[in-house]
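Incident review: delayed structure delivery

Summary: a single-chain prediction request sat in the queue longer than the usual turnaround. Root cause was a stuck worker, restarted by the on-call engineer. No data loss occurred. The affected request and its eventual output are reproduced below so the record is complete for anyone auditing the incident later.

Affected input:
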Amino acid sequence: MDWEAPIDSGDVPDENSRFDVIIVGGGPGGSAAAGYMAMAGHRVLLLEKAIWPRDKTCGDAVGGKSLKHVEELGMKATLEKTNHFRVDSIIFSSPNGKEVCIPLPEEEVENREAGYSLPRRQFDTMMFRNANEKVLAAGGAAIQDFTVKEVHVEDDVITGVSGLVKGGQMLRFHAALTIGAGGYNCPVARTITKQHGEPMVDKDHYCAAYREYWTGVGGCDDWKGPIEIHFIDGVIPGYFWIFPVGNGVVNVGIGMVISEMDKQKVKLRGLQKWVIENVPKFKPRFENATMIEGSGKGSQLPFGSPRKKPPSFQPRRTAMAGALCVGDAASLVDPFTGEGIGNALLSAKLASDVFDRDLHQEGFTTESATEYQETLWKHLCPELTNSFKLQRLVRKRRLMNWFIGKASRKEELQRALTDMVASKEAQGEFHSKWWLIKTLIF
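Output delivered after worker restart:
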């Protein structure tokens, strides 16, 4: 498949056109929501501010949870035919240099259910192309190069959006449901939180990330193998990652909670350069490596970690009458691994489940918005809470050294760590404090 080929979205709909659902953002969450809605027979308007293909700052891993939805959307066969790196294990290292390599279940690797690593430019293009086809076939529309300028609220109900299309024309569209899928700064999410007087950005739960693509990195020259997460002195409470994406290309990145960055007064690009050039563990691996010019990019990741005394819903308010959010716009990124695609696709599926065209003819109700938020947290609370525990653990150097040491000898911890990175449904026992104490101490 030619990942550089443009995607034809067809004609721009007329001003004041009405749809069942408007989706703001064509990344994995928005494209999945559009695909699920179109498959249910709804008339969808999919809006994307970029022109495809486009890049996205990310670690590029697609875990097991994502593949379930990729298959439901009819794309797994296409994904398997494209170039990708097959993840068969995960390497963790602690500040004292100890490592644990956790193999993923062999049957899942062989059945292509364990996970993949491939550039977001490639994966997202596949997702958008699939959504575009489904939306147009169901009588909807898709617009690229569309910048949302206003999310319309009437009598405390979101009724649609206005924005600029290529050439500067302002158009307004209406729908019973507007879905925010526009990432960490999504205009729909901003409108929802502002409408309820609640914060959208919490620096204790927002992560900054910086990524580069490299070739020639030592130990990363195959199409199958491990992805790596390293906790390093000088980077904690963040981490440094090495994720091969195939053909000798490696996604190399670094991430840290924004409030910690402010405390330490660090810049991620410079911090990554220091790791590559000075840390003995990595310096030899990059001696003959070359960074791909122009590949250094930064972004923000809204974590789904539980908030203390939230104003209303966990992890934050993500819906109201007329609208809901999915993926990063709903603050659903895993706070330990930084993985967000799996939860984006899950939230897209839940959004399609809660929307009923007949029930919501007059608009998506407050009751349905509450149902969505409560169902979303019920699904994700255990694993996001577990991941937040691990994120807090790595802030303490000695605890992290001890934990990785334990994990190298304890299969129970190895499975738990695998669940975190592979984005499997959370294991109930790992959510138990007693299980954690028993496993770590005895």
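Verification: Residues 55 and 121 are 5 Å apart (CA to CA).
Action items: add queue-age alerting; document worker restart procedure.
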